[in-house]
Amino acid sequence: MNPFLFLRGEFRRSWGGALALALVLAFAGSLSPAVSMMERSIRSGMAQSADAFDLLIGAKGSAVDLVLGAVYLRPEPLPLLPFGTLENVKAHGGLRWAAPLAFGDRWRNFPLAGTSSELVTLGGKRPLASGRMFLNSDEAVVGAGVPLKEGDSFVPSHGSVAEAALDENGGRAHAHEFRVVGRMPATGTPWDRAIVVPIESLWSMHGNGAGEGRCSVVVAKPVTVADAYKLRAAMNALETQAVFSGEVLTRLFGTLEQMHDVMLLLASGAQAAALAAALVSGFFAVAMRVRAMALLRALGASHGFLAVSVWLMVSGVMFVGCLLGLGLGYVMASAASAWIQTETGVALTVSLSMKEVLAALAAAGCGCLAAFLPAWFACRRTAGELLRSA
Amino acid sequence: MDNDLHLRNIRYSVQDGSGVRRVLDIPELDLPGGALVGIYGDSGSGKTSLLNLLCGLVLPDPCQGCEIRWGEDELTVMPEGRRDAWRGRHVGMIFQDFQLFPHLSAMENVLLPATFRHFSIPEDLRDRARDLLRRLGIRRTEASTGVFSRGEQQRVAMARAVLFRPSVLLADEPTASLDRSNAQLVTDELVDLARSEGCTLLVVTHEQVMHGRMDRRFRLERGRLLSGLDDALKVK
């Protein structure tokens, strides 16, 4: 037997309904893979961004704010460290390098970070992509995503990027002018959007003396794991805290995972509801085709021919819907990642894993199994019953 | 092959709003194979039910000695699956409202019954479908039948009915929804087809022209078969 000729006619007759149903299934089925792919790409992008920031020392307060501010350049209100913290850290020993970090100003939507050359070159391990390191207080090195060329000059404005968004006048400009002398290599991290200047220039720009010599964060690169733990223990004191960025991220990922699980549950519920709706539509499709089925029986079609036809009709829509959902999920996750990348600078790579493919195939498999119900409903009726219903 | 029809003790009832209603009651009927037979009767007299019984779509009420036999094939004892297969092989059906699939082409409609038993339709069947359509005057074999005139649609349905060279051709009011000239054309072609293919033709019709072309004719009245214009038909 070959039910495809009959199915071709039925598809030509009601392709709009079949397509609409497949699209509903695709949309419902896209949420789950999109959530999974996003969670994975955010996790990996965030972890990658924190690679250079082994140990962060900040003033007592939220460890999460410290990591978000230093690693992801989020405009968190980080309090200043006490005088001499950087020197204390350096004096502790067991360090490859340590660098101060301070924030607060911006050029357009690009945050200014005041630090030393150690953080820019990761202690000499990461050369600049072009140009040279800043040598005096009116020179700057820019991230790969900053639209300034070497030789360009710019005047930063007061306030963080977030504060500027609230300021209708676009903020007040500093009197201090910087010249770009170098460009950092692309890292796929928020630091690609950063303009890095000597920390001394930030102090002089805000030359009221209050913050001079102080920074918000000290970024430290210990030599060994043991050194790292020793330094962390030493710096976790009355006024300061030392955190491993990886440890804080693990806590954040825990929360992310819980959100992911909840969203996955909701998405799976939506997909199950859509599959159930498609199944009900399958029964309606059978009910609407009683006349056609009676005719097929009159022309000599067997119960099996009707069952296979209905099964293919219903399971085909479900299968196509579920696979389209996987593709749509990938497109949605890619679009969301691109948006997040634009907003944060964190490079997110969306990839389809076997987990999503298997989940989509499992949903399609459930749909194909469920399609046996309308198929059975169609073929259990005798020709006489069909004729009476037609 | 002997293709005589023998009916014995046939009663057929249906359940409707007022309870069980006897639709047909035929104690005995014999027809020789290859006969062209016209059936007429008032609405509700059981004509369509008789055709459904004759092709095994429905079974008579169970009773001692009931029999619907075409040659050696006894339908009342066949399981439904075998009756389906028998019907597909031996019976061609033509309906008042054509019952084509309007989104399939004329060729696809004619070949549809072939898909019940073949995955890939043999070339000789395709040739036969093409020849039948040509013989019945259908030129647009690849066009959807939804755009055909009613006369053309009925001729496509006739080609579909005789594709497998059935020994029995059952037609239920085949000309009732056609205009006079198309009805005449379809009548001529149906009779010619039945003669040339050697089928037994049973036609439910009220058309005098059609009855005039039949070998035998009889009337159904409230489920009982009465001799019609031709007393040679053996009816009790």
Please provide a written account of the structure.
The complex is a heterodimer of chains A (390) and B (236). Chain A has 390 residues and is of the alpha+beta class. Chain A is built from 13 helices and eleven strands. In chain A, the strands form two sheets. In chain A, strands 3, 4, 5, 6, 7, 8 and 9 form a seven-stranded mixed sheet that branches. In chain A, strands 2-10-1-11 form a four-stranded antiparallel sheet, sandwiched between helices. Chain B has a single domain, classed as P-loop containing nucleotide triphosphate hydrolases (Rossmann fold). Helices cover 32% and strands 27% of the residues of chain B. In chain B, the strands form two sheets. A six-stranded mixed sheet of chain B has the order 6-7-8-3-9-10. In chain B, strands 5-4-1-2-11 form a five-stranded antiparallel sheet, covered by helices on one side.
Tell me the layout of helices and strands.
The complex is a heterodimer of chains A (390) and B (236).
Chain A: H1 4-49, E1 55-59, H2 63-72, H3 85-92, E2 95-101, E3 106-107, E4 110-115, H4 117-121, E5 130-131, E6 139-142, E7 153-154, H5 161-166, E8 178-183, E9 195-198, H6 199-205, E10 217-222, H7 225-235, E11 240-244, H8 245-288, H9 290-298, H10 303-344, H11 354-370, H12 372-379, H13 383-389
Parallel strand pairs in A: 4-9, 6-8
Antiparallel strand pairs in A: 1-10, 1-11, 2-10, 3-4, 5-8, 6-9, 7-8
Chain B: E1 5-16, E2 19-31, E3 36-41, H1 47-54, E4 67-70, E5 73-74, H2 80-90, E6 91-94, H3 106-111, H4 123-135, H5 150-162, E7 168-172, H6 180-197, E8 200-204, H7 208-213, E9 216-221, E10 224-227, E11 234-235
Parallel strand pairs in B: 3-8, 3-9, 6-7, 7-8
Antiparallel strand pairs in B: 1-2, 1-4, 2-11, 4-5, 9-10
